[in-house]
Amino acid sequence: MKKIFYSVLIILGLSIAHNASAQNQDILAIINSKDYSRLQDALKNADMTESLKEKGPYTFFAPSNLAFDKMAPETTFDELNKPENKEKLRGMISYLILKENLDINKISQLIKAGKGKTNLTTLENGKILVSLEGKKIKLSDERGNHAYILGAGKKASNGTVYEIDQVLLPKKKD
Hints:
seven-stranded mixed β-sheet, 7 strands, globular
């Protein structure tokens, strides 16, 4: 019985230590993995890496490489990353960032207060509609595209990062 008790204490201690170390990392450090290599490239090409090291607070809806693979042909990752599309790329990335730190509980409270949905304002003053679909949190962009938040998010020193399964895009500019 003592062995089980000490094993649980060790696992709990490691879990707390891991969460505490994640909170000492900024958003850029949180997305520093091979699963986000395309997002990292996009941030570099848009000259936005330093901004995600700033104090914040931010909420970042981070598309994984798989999400970038699902983009429509007219907005492919390679097309967006061309030097002549730098401003479009900056707009796309800014559309994925909120200038507030919303943990999963706060997002749920906002949805409940909005009777099933709420609008969030992005860094580029766009809107993302947030709602529940079953038990999943659904994000809808201004073009009618949808993404789902995968997991409860990762806390960073300057905000929260949520992996999303699709790339959300701002409204087309005329």
